[in-house]
Amino acid sequence: MAVLMHHAYYIEGSAGEFEEYKKLIPHFVAQKYERFGIDEARALTQLASLKNIEGEAVFFLALGSITNEAQQALLKLFEEPQSGTVFILLAPHGAFIATLKSRMLPYPKPIVEFSRSDLLAKDFLKMRSKERSDLIAKMLKDEEGAKERVRDFVNALEVVLAKDVKKNKQGLADIAIVRDYLSDRAPSMKMLLEHLALSLPSF
Protein backbone atom coordinates (compact mmCIF):
# COMPACT_ATOMS: atom_id res chain seq x y z
CA MET A 1 0.00 0.00 0.00
CA ALA A 2 1.18 3.53 -0.77
CA VAL A 3 2.06 5.82 2.12
CA LEU A 4 -1.07 7.90 2.70
CA MET A 5 -0.08 11.47 3.53
CA HIS A 6 -3.48 12.99 2.70
CA HIS A 7 -6.83 12.39 4.43
CA ALA A 8 -8.96 11.64 1.35
CA TYR A 9 -8.38 9.89 -1.98
CA TYR A 10 -10.53 8.93 -4.93
CA ILE A 11 -10.39 6.12 -7.48
CA GLU A 12 -12.43 6.45 -10.67
CA GLY A 13 -13.35 2.95 -11.73
CA SER A 14 -15.82 0.11 -11.69
CA ALA A 15 -17.45 -1.11 -8.49
CA GLY A 16 -16.44 -4.54 -9.78
CA GLU A 17 -12.88 -3.66 -8.75
CA PHE A 18 -13.90 -3.45 -5.09
CA GLU A 19 -12.82 -6.95 -4.07
CA GLU A 20 -9.41 -6.63 -5.74
CA TYR A 21 -8.72 -3.29 -4.06
CA LYS A 22 -10.00 -4.66 -0.76
CA LYS A 23 -7.21 -7.25 -0.88
CA LEU A 24 -4.60 -4.56 -1.53
CA ILE A 25 -5.71 -1.76 0.81
CA PRO A 26 -5.38 -2.39 4.56
CA HIS A 27 -8.59 -1.00 5.99
CA PHE A 28 -10.52 -0.32 9.16
CA VAL A 29 -13.81 -0.35 7.24
CA ALA A 30 -14.44 -1.59 3.69
CA GLN A 31 -17.98 -1.23 2.38
CA LYS A 32 -19.71 -1.38 -0.99
CA TYR A 33 -22.84 0.69 -1.68
CA GLU A 34 -25.18 0.50 -4.66
CA ARG A 35 -26.32 4.04 -3.85
CA PHE A 36 -24.62 6.30 -1.29
CA GLY A 37 -27.09 8.87 0.03
CA ILE A 38 -27.38 11.33 2.89
CA ASP A 39 -28.20 8.62 5.47
CA GLU A 40 -25.06 6.70 4.55
CA ALA A 41 -23.00 9.92 4.69
CA ARG A 42 -24.31 10.69 8.18
CA ALA A 43 -23.56 7.16 9.37
CA LEU A 44 -20.01 7.42 8.00
CA THR A 45 -19.51 10.80 9.70
CA GLN A 46 -20.67 9.39 13.02
CA LEU A 47 -18.43 6.32 12.75
CA ALA A 48 -15.40 8.36 11.68
CA SER A 49 -15.82 10.70 14.66
CA LEU A 50 -15.70 7.97 17.31
CA LYS A 51 -13.11 8.82 19.92
CA ASN A 52 -12.03 5.20 20.37
CA ILE A 53 -10.52 5.04 16.87
CA GLU A 54 -6.78 5.22 17.50
CA GLY A 55 -3.95 5.32 15.01
CA GLU A 56 -4.65 5.24 11.26
CA ALA A 57 -8.23 4.30 10.39
CA VAL A 58 -8.75 3.76 6.66
CA PHE A 59 -12.31 3.84 5.31
CA PHE A 60 -12.46 2.24 1.86
CA LEU A 61 -15.84 2.74 0.19
CA ALA A 62 -17.03 1.61 -3.25
CA LEU A 63 -19.97 3.70 -4.47
CA GLY A 64 -22.19 2.60 -7.34
CA SER A 65 -23.63 6.12 -7.28
CA ILE A 66 -23.58 9.04 -4.85
CA THR A 67 -26.18 11.78 -4.37
CA ASN A 68 -25.34 15.50 -4.37
CA GLU A 69 -26.73 15.77 -0.84
CA ALA A 70 -24.34 13.07 0.36
CA GLN A 71 -21.43 14.80 -1.35
CA GLN A 72 -22.24 18.04 0.44
CA ALA A 73 -22.17 16.14 3.74
CA LEU A 74 -18.79 14.61 2.87
CA LEU A 75 -17.40 18.07 2.10
CA LYS A 76 -17.78 19.03 5.75
CA LEU A 77 -16.33 15.70 6.91
CA PHE A 78 -13.28 16.09 4.68
CA GLU A 79 -12.73 19.70 5.80
CA GLU A 80 -12.35 18.68 9.44
CA PRO A 81 -11.06 15.09 9.46
CA GLN A 82 -10.05 13.39 12.68
CA SER A 83 -6.31 12.92 12.93
CA GLY A 84 -5.20 9.58 11.45
CA THR A 85 -8.44 9.02 9.55
CA VAL A 86 -8.15 8.36 5.81
CA PHE A 87 -10.95 7.99 3.27
CA ILE A 88 -10.58 6.19 -0.07
CA LEU A 89 -13.62 6.40 -2.36
CA LEU A 90 -14.03 4.21 -5.44
CA ALA A 91 -16.72 5.58 -7.77
CA PRO A 92 -17.57 5.71 -11.49
CA HIS A 93 -15.94 8.29 -13.71
CA GLY A 94 -17.55 11.71 -13.28
CA ALA A 95 -19.49 10.78 -10.14
CA PHE A 96 -17.96 13.43 -7.87
CA ILE A 97 -18.89 17.11 -7.89
CA ALA A 98 -15.90 19.39 -8.46
CA THR A 99 -15.83 20.82 -4.93
CA LEU A 100 -15.67 17.37 -3.33
CA LYS A 101 -13.13 16.04 -5.81
CA SER A 102 -10.90 19.04 -5.09
CA ARG A 103 -10.71 17.92 -1.44
CA MET A 104 -9.24 14.56 -2.51
CA LEU A 105 -6.15 13.27 -4.28
CA PRO A 106 -6.10 10.48 -6.86
CA TYR A 107 -5.18 7.24 -5.14
CA PRO A 108 -1.93 5.71 -6.42
CA LYS A 109 -3.57 2.95 -8.45
CA PRO A 110 -2.03 -0.50 -8.00
CA ILE A 111 -2.10 -3.14 -10.71
CA VAL A 112 -5.48 -4.83 -10.51
CA GLU A 113 -6.24 -8.02 -12.39
CA PHE A 114 -9.06 -7.80 -14.91
CA SER A 115 -12.30 -9.19 -13.57
CA ARG A 116 -14.72 -11.23 -15.65
CA SER A 117 -16.86 -8.09 -16.07
CA ASP A 118 -13.88 -6.13 -17.44
CA LEU A 119 -13.12 -8.79 -20.04
CA LEU A 120 -16.79 -9.16 -20.94
CA ALA A 121 -17.11 -5.40 -21.46
CA LYS A 122 -14.14 -5.32 -23.82
CA ASP A 123 -15.53 -8.23 -25.83
CA PHE A 124 -18.98 -6.62 -25.93
CA LEU A 125 -17.62 -3.42 -27.47
CA LYS A 126 -15.97 -5.40 -30.26
CA MET A 127 -19.18 -7.25 -31.18
CA ARG A 128 -21.82 -6.55 -33.79
CA SER A 129 -25.47 -6.01 -32.88
CA LYS A 130 -26.59 -9.67 -33.08
CA GLU A 131 -23.62 -10.87 -31.01
CA ARG A 132 -24.32 -8.24 -28.38
CA SER A 133 -27.96 -9.36 -28.09
CA ASP A 134 -26.85 -12.98 -27.70
CA LEU A 135 -24.41 -12.03 -24.95
CA ILE A 136 -27.11 -10.06 -23.11
CA ALA A 137 -29.47 -13.06 -23.24
CA LYS A 138 -26.72 -15.28 -21.83
CA MET A 139 -25.92 -12.77 -19.07
CA LEU A 140 -29.55 -12.64 -17.94
CA LYS A 141 -30.29 -16.37 -18.25
CA ASP A 142 -29.51 -17.01 -14.59
CA GLU A 143 -31.75 -14.67 -12.58
CA GLU A 144 -29.83 -15.17 -9.32
CA GLY A 145 -27.38 -12.31 -8.89
CA ALA A 146 -28.32 -10.85 -12.29
CA LYS A 147 -28.66 -7.27 -11.07
CA GLU A 148 -25.20 -7.33 -9.48
CA ARG A 149 -23.67 -8.83 -12.64
CA VAL A 150 -25.34 -6.22 -14.83
CA ARG A 151 -24.25 -3.35 -12.59
CA ASP A 152 -20.63 -4.57 -12.61
CA PHE A 153 -20.80 -5.02 -16.39
CA VAL A 154 -22.15 -1.49 -16.91
CA ASN A 155 -19.43 -0.08 -14.64
CA ALA A 156 -16.81 -2.01 -16.61
CA LEU A 157 -18.15 -0.58 -19.89
CA GLU A 158 -17.78 2.87 -18.40
CA VAL A 159 -14.14 2.23 -17.43
CA VAL A 160 -13.29 1.22 -21.00
CA LEU A 161 -15.05 4.23 -22.56
CA ALA A 162 -13.64 6.66 -19.99
CA LYS A 163 -10.16 6.12 -21.44
CA ASP A 164 -11.21 8.56 -24.17
CA VAL A 165 -13.85 10.82 -22.62
CA LYS A 166 -14.00 13.26 -25.53
CA LYS A 167 -14.59 10.54 -28.13
CA ASN A 168 -17.07 8.58 -25.98
CA LYS A 169 -18.96 11.46 -24.35
CA GLN A 170 -22.38 10.28 -25.58
CA GLY A 171 -21.71 6.66 -24.63
CA LEU A 172 -20.71 7.69 -21.11
CA ALA A 173 -23.88 9.77 -20.84
CA ASP A 174 -25.97 6.74 -21.89
CA ILE A 175 -24.24 4.60 -19.28
CA ALA A 176 -24.98 7.18 -16.56
CA ILE A 177 -28.68 7.08 -17.48
CA VAL A 178 -28.75 3.27 -17.48
CA ARG A 179 -27.05 3.18 -14.07
CA ASP A 180 -29.73 5.47 -12.62
CA TYR A 181 -32.48 3.18 -13.90
CA LEU A 182 -30.67 0.15 -12.47
CA SER A 183 -31.14 1.70 -9.02
CA ASP A 184 -34.92 1.29 -9.38
CA ARG A 185 -36.59 -1.50 -7.44
CA ALA A 186 -37.41 -3.64 -10.50
CA PRO A 187 -35.59 -2.32 -13.57
CA SER A 188 -35.98 -3.95 -17.00
CA MET A 189 -32.37 -5.05 -17.30
CA LYS A 190 -32.88 -6.56 -20.76
CA MET A 191 -34.31 -3.30 -22.11
CA LEU A 192 -31.50 -1.25 -20.54
CA LEU A 193 -28.76 -3.50 -21.89
CA GLU A 194 -30.36 -3.63 -25.34
CA HIS A 195 -30.32 0.17 -25.33
CA LEU A 196 -26.57 0.11 -24.69
CA ALA A 197 -26.11 -2.58 -27.33
CA LEU A 198 -27.61 -0.21 -29.90
CA SER A 199 -26.11 3.07 -28.68
CA LEU A 200 -22.51 2.23 -27.74
CA PRO A 201 -19.84 2.40 -30.44
CA SER A 202 -18.14 -0.70 -31.78
CA PHE A 203 -14.38 -0.79 -31.26
Please describe the topology of this protein.
Blueprint: E1 8-12, H1 18-24, E2 29-33, H2 38-48, E3 57-63, H3 68-79, E4 85-91, H4 98-101, E5 105-106, H5 116-126, H6 129-140, H7 146-161, H8 169-182, H9 189-199
Parallel strand pairs: 1-4, 1-5, 2-3, 3-4
Helix pairs in contact: 2-3, 5-7, 6-9, 7-8, 8-9
Task: Kindly describe this structure.
This protein has 203 residues and is an alpha/beta fold. The protein folds into two domains: 8-106, P-loop containing nucleotide triphosphate hydrolases (Rossmann fold, 3-Layer(aba) Sandwich), CATH 3.40.50.300; 116-199. It is built from nine helices and five strands, in the order βαβαβαβαβααααα. The chain has helices at 18-24, 38-48, 68-79, 98-101, 116-126, 129-140, 146-161, 169-182, 189-199; strands spanning 8-12, 29-33, 57-63, 85-91, 105-106. The chain has a five-stranded parallel sheet, with no helix packed on it. α2 (38-48) links the parallel β2 and β3 (57-63).
